[in-house]
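Protocol step 4 of 6: structure prediction from sequence.
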Amino acid sequence: MWTHPAWPLPERLRSYASWCNAVEGNTTFYATPAASTISSWVDQTPPDFRLLLKLPKAITHERRLGDVAGLVRSFLDTIEPLGERVHALWVQLPASFGPPDLGALAAFLRRMPRDRRLTVEVRHPAFFAHPQRLEQVLGEVGAEWVLFDTTVLFGAPPLGPAEEEAWQQKPRLPRRSQALTAHPVVRYIGRDDDAQTVEGWQHWVDTVVGWLREGRSPTVFVHTPDNARALVLARRFHDEVRARLPDVEPLPEPLPSDPLTLF
């Protein structure tokens, strides 16, 4: 997500890390990165930066978590130099992965190293109608359920090509806001209108403030259909949380970008 064409980040990940202190690692979904790429990520980020790395699609989508021990081991060995920067391994499952597949998920999660934090994203509607079995599977290994909120996106008809595309590609699911662990993960998608996005995230400001008061350490990602202003909106969300809880650490001062006026 740090290579978005609308973001003038001269040093890519290093610049991004001055705007936000966490990122969704989407690139790992398509292939396990080269060792040189991992080394560059280490060089460009501080030790407390949070990378949520998506497992390769060969593991989650092609083999659907079965017979993947070698692929998982290769991936974990490759990302090892990132150390604590790997805040969680992100198991994003296809929409066709439903309750009948829970046995495969449970077996997969039990085989994963216990020193790795796991967060699972599901898109099958049946999990939301009857969440108890999935919650049990995740709870047995201390894994989190990614809270992917598209309710604001689908709250009104799309305006413009980016919102129309998002309507075609994003899942339309009920909003879920229950944390299972001390490290909940929220993926919120608003609209390309800033005011609608900000209005729609008030639920999450309240929820995150509550989690922080409970001693949890959430990670929140803010998206819009075109993502053009996602960086500045993410910082605005953080500011709203800090206005309620001043003890929350401020984000770093962004490195200069070109052109400065874009944001």
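Step 5 (inspection) to follow. The first helix runs from residue 13 to 19.
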